[in-house]
Amino acid sequence: MKSKKQNLNILGLKVTDHISAMLAYWDKNMICRFANSAYVEWFGKTKEEMVDKITIKELLGPLYEKNLPFISKALKGEIQTFEREIPLPTGGIRHSLANYYPDIDNGEVMGFFVHVADVTPLKLMEIELLKTNKKVLEQNKRLLNFSNIVSHNLKSYSNNLSSILNLYSSAPSEDEKNRMFDLLESISKGFSSTINHLNEITKSQNLAKLNPEQINLNELISKSKMTLLVQIQSTNAIIKNNIDMGINIFANPVYMESIILNLLTNAIKYRQETKPPIIELTGTQESGKTILKIKDNGKGINLEKHGADLFGMYKTFHGNPDAEGIGLFITKYHMETMGGQIEVESKENVGTTFTLTFN
Fold first, then answer.
1. Coil, helix or strand at residue 318
2. pLDDT tens digits, residue range 211-250?
3. What pTM was estimated for this model as a whole?
4. In this predicted model, what pLDDT tens digit does every residue of 32-79 receive, in sequence order?
5. Nearest CA to 101 among 168, 6, 7?
6. What are residue 347's DSSP bridge partners?
7. Residue 250, beta-bridge partner list
8. Cα end-to-end span (Å), the chain
9. How far apart are CA 58 and CA 44, in angstroms?
10. Closest by alpha carbon to 279, among 234, 242, 318?
11. Where are the beta strands (DSSP E) in the chain?
């Protein structure tokens, strides 16, 4: 049986030195047991200086007291997510989105994983736009929408990373642990790719006009299924992809990823308690338009009662305390920004079908 330290070394070799996200592991004594290249470079250290030597208090310095409440909760078994400004040894400030995931073994917290993304370009864009006057009110409105998009999209990756790390802690064999590492590699690369796309959008200085690309719908759906793998497996969801391999659309990749993730997530989240979710995707091309349908057998929505509010900001309909009411608003915003349309058919206790039309 390999030790946790050996397993973490496997993680480093297989995954972490090849992604831009920063990953580290701190044991319950708050000593660093693993750090990838992005993490040590951020703090101006080497792996030899950090691993098995440095404490998190020594590394963070003045930031330690600010992060201590999150560290303490992580060591109590609670997942933590927060933003932080971090001064670099070379000078300047970077903005980060940090996640602390407890490592729990047989009910005991052994330490915690750290996952940090550099979101400086996004934060600087937000700060700059918040300083503007009434002449750019519409741009600020787009920024608000965009901020919600960023938070909502990245949460899918953060939640899945958390689930995979929890599965790693309870994996019964080395083969299963290695499979968890492979999944972590795929999700981390997707997380990094999404961050890069979002950074490119902020640099465009116009959040309403984004560069489209040719996207293969099957490849996009396969990526989304991998991102939601834990949710799919834990609910025994069945996703039937009936889309022809040759169907492509010309659209913005960040928006399309968000659309598919939102609609698949909703179909799984709002399933009926008595049956596993069945989600069917079909795609056709007619008269120069591509039509994508996503059909589920979930709880459904009373459109006579809620139809007018269905795509509204912060509107929820099923009494789920975790629902934010952002997903469908974002989806409609994406479709209309790209010149497309979204329609819905739904019946309570039968299911819902979303029809997306791309011109």
1. coil
2. 788 999 999 998 888 888 878 888 999 999 999 888 999 9
3. 0.50
4. 998 888 888 888 899 899 999 999 999 988 889 999 999 999 999 999
5. 168
6. 351
7. 214
8. 56
9. 13
10. 242
11. 22-27, 32-35, 80-87, 93-105, 108-118, 213-216, 238-241, 248-251, 278-286, 289-296, 341-347, 351-358
Tokens for 39, please give them: 């993490």
Q: Are strands 238-241 and 278-286 parallel, antiparallel or unpaired?
A: parallel
The DSSP secondary structure of 174-186, one letter per residue, reads HHHHHHHHHHHHH
Mean pLDDT in residue range 338-354 = 91
Residue 204: pLDDT over 80: no
Instruction: With cut-offs at 50, 70 and 90, classify the pLDDT of residue 262.
Output: confident
Question: How far apart (Å, rounded) are the C-alpha atoms in residues 266 and 259?
Answer: 11
Q: Report the alpha-carbon distance of residue 269 to residue 104 in Å, rounded.
A: 26
What amino acid occupies position 318? H
- CA 224 – CA 157 distance, rounded (Å): 10
Higher pLDDT, 32 or 126: 32
What is the share, in percent, of the chain residues with pLDDT greater than 90?
30
Task: Give, for 190, the enclosing helix (H) or strand (E).
Answer: helix 174-203
Other CB atoms within a 10 A radius of the CB of residue 77 amount to 13
Instruction: State how far the Cα of 40 lies from the Cα of 37, in Å rounded to an integer.
Output: 5
Quote the CA–CA distance of 141 and 218 in Å, as a whole number.
Answer: 33
Q: What would the two tokens of residue 1 be?
A: 């049986």
**Cα 23 to Cα 19: distance, rounded to the nearest angstrom:** 9
Task: Please give the pLDDT value at position 94.
Answer: 82
Helix, strand and coil percent figures for the chain, each rounded to 5:
50, 25, 30
Answer whether 25's CB lies under 8 Å from 112's CB: yes
The packing angle between helices 137-170 and 327-337, to 10°, is: 130
DSSP one-letter code for 196: H
Please report, to the nearest 10 degrees, the dihedral formed by the alpha carbons of residues 261, 262, 265, 270 taken in order: -160
Structure-block tokens of residue 214: 């040719």
Is the model's pLDDT at 320 over the cut of 60? no
